[in-house]
Design goal:
This protein is α+β, with helices and mostly antiparallel strands. The chain has three domains: 3-103, Tetratricopeptide repeat domain (Serine Threonine Protein Phosphatase 5, Tetratricopeptide repeat, Alpha Horseshoe); 117-192; 194-253, SH3 Domains (SH3 type barrels, Roll). Helices cover 60% and strands 14% of the residues. It has eight helices and seven strands; from the N terminus they run ααααααααβββββββ. The longest helix has 35 residues, at 3-37. It is globular, with a radius of gyration of 24 Å.
Length: 257
């Protein structure tokens, strides 16, 4: 067998394995949907989690998994998987609507600190797309800018030159804004480090040890932000500004696959 034949055999084998892998994932997803439709919610959860075990993720998968946990009244997993779905599809109305319903499952009612109106508006715009989404918009804008500028440069018609010059400037500005929003979303994701409390009830301590004084108590489903890690403890912050130390095994990070 020649080297080219061996290479072709490897390529064909790889493509077939990828196709089979994709088909298996699709079958598991359909099986989960069928279990859910028939009211077998735990079986649906098991099917969806088998897909996650294969290191495959999507907004639809997380959304359906959250829905199944919601039917089982599993508070923490419900909140967690809706949050995961929103990370991949932040502007999806169905996910946002169901995530709002899941908020009613939580015991802790934490009021956020007052926010700057302009900063909150910018954050709401940034949340319209994922980091990759803003990056793709920026790339498309740069391509349109180059095309518009070339048409402007080589055109002899005054009206057309004016039109494409304005268009090139407009898409360039939009591209720059998209890059800044992508960077803002990336920086925010790295800084926030969000997590969900998975223990039914946990005591948050003032120091990273069990003998320290009680700072406050949290319940499952509450969203926290991890500030630092010391041994088996994480220092967390709530949206109302409170901070404390919690055992790391009592929370599940959202930025971990």
């Amino acid at each position: 067998m020649t080297k080219i034949s061996k290479l072709l055999l490897v390529v064909v084998t790889f493509l077939l394995s990828c196709t089979t892998y994709a088909q298996q994932t699709e079958l598991l997803f359909e099986a989960g949907n069928e279990h859910y439709a028939q009211g077998r919610f735990q079986e649906a959860v098991d099917a969806y989690k088998r897909i996650l075990d294969q290191k495959v993720e999507s907004a639809a998968l997380y959304f359906n998994l959250a829905n199944a946990h919601y039917k089982l009244n599993n508070v923490a997993p419900t909140v967690y998987y809706y949050e995961k779905a929103l990370q991949l599809a932040p502007s999806d109305p169905d996910i946002r609507n169901n995530a709002a319903f899941a908020e009613n499952m939580k015991i802790d009612a934490i009021e956020p600190l007052p926010k700057n109106t302009l900063q909150e508006w910018i954050n709401s715009v940034v949340r319209l797309f994922t980091i990759d989404g803003w990056a793709k918009i920026a790339i498309v804008c740069m391509i349109l800018f180059v095309l518009s500028f070339l048409i402007y440069y080589f055109s002899y018609n005054t009206t057309k030159k004016r039109l494409f010059f304005i268009s090139s400037i407009a898409v360039l500005i939009l591209g720059i804004i998209s890059v800044s929003f992508a960077y803002t979303a990336f920086a925010k994701a790295g800084k926030d480090n969000p997590a969900i409390v998975f223990t039914p009830e946990v005591e948050v301590k003032s120091e990273p040890n069990l003998s320290s004084t009680l700072a406050f108590t949290l319940h499952e489903g509450t969203k926290v932000f991890v500030l630092e890690e010391v041994n088996e403890w994480n220092r967390i912050k709530l949206i109302d500004g409170k901070t404390g130390w919690i055992p790391k095994n009592d929370i599940k990070l959202l930025n971990n696959f």
